[in-house]
Sequence to fold (450 residues):
Amino acid sequence: MPKSTDVTIKSATCSFEPVVFRTPLKFGGRVMDKGHLINVEVEVARRAGKPAVGFGSMPVASVWAWPSSQLSIDQADAAMKMFAEEVVELTIAYSDYAHPIDIMEQLSAEYEHLAKQLKNKLKLPEAMPVLAQLVAASPLDAALHDAFGRVHGKNSYDTLSKEYMNHDLSNYLDDSFKGEYLDKYTLREPKARMPLYHLVGALDPLTTADVQKKVGDGLPETLGEWIKHDGLTHLKIKLAGDNLQWDVDRVLAVDKVAAEAQALRKCATWYYSLDFNEKCGNVQYVLDFLAKVKAGTPAGYDRIQYIEQPTNRDLAAHPENKMHEAAKLKPVVIDESLVDYDSLLLAREMGYTGVALKTCKGHSGSLILAAAAQKHNMFLCVQDLTCPGYSFLHSASLAARIPGVAAIEGNSRQYCPAANRKWRSEVPQMFDITDGTVGTGALNALGLGF
Fold:
């Protein structure tokens, strides 16, 4: 039965905002040195009462969502922007009343068709992959949840119960979730503070000897300086995945610099996550890598908290890439492959023991997959997409509301801090880092929390 809390969409707009990088970011063999944000504003209304406006924002980032040998980065970015606009146009035509989770489920059924139309319209050599579709549509998803919370005068994470949702989780997952709603898998208050994962990109200087040309903007230039400046305790290390000795040497070098910097701070405990960006040819590469790291720095090996998806994102096409042996040593989380519940189940069959949640894949889907991962007792982490400003706060709000997520990734302060300026003045505890943590307890306002 329809609920009085359901909303309809009155209007929606889409715009784009350029993002300037202070330093280039290299990952997966590709370099990102500029970008755009997709910004979406949505007005919703109940059957009775005043309407409310919600906002969503996300980087385009085709370099991650649509790595292609047939399209340039600019071509893929342009197609994703157009897809975002067309999803918003589709939303404007939506006339039903529903919960944001159901609105997005209905809209997403049109994504494949929109992508095919776009391929023909732009004469693209290939259709937009599902991951890129999700990223382009994610600002709309966020804006709907933000507006839904605001129209009810509540935080959006408090509108995930039976009181507001029309269906239990079995409607989106399977019968094991019968009678369960998302409020069971989310927190009513955000975690007060969370450690921040700092990114060590493949081009990032570790010491002053690595600095070829200073940026000179007053921010740290080397890893050691960043650790001291921000009091860091969590480091995410980008690796090549196709050069074993380089990868081992990089971790050993990071560990050496970190150990020296942490000793000066009298910090005895810190952590690493490792990201190969799918470049490893097979699980044996990961096993050999871990063995060499353990031999080179046993303490550094112990600091590895988890490994992100090391092999090709197309799981079905590469059934040989099973992670069982690696997952016996460290949690191995699915990232680029995680686009729906079926992909999560396939990843579990292939030995993955954790999931990387990302708001860039959609707020609705992230909430649902977070519930599924908890039910299956999987390791949980939340990562961003070099998300600045509003998009970083959105990602952090998700991390702060999901039980079991221990840290939040946020690297816009390293690569594009200018885009944080407006939000830094409004939520300084999320951008001024001194003890390696962010003050996620502040993300408890209406809508998505800020």
User: Anything to note?
Assistant: The CA atoms of residues 369 and 406 lie 17 Å apart. The chain has a mean pLDDT of 96.
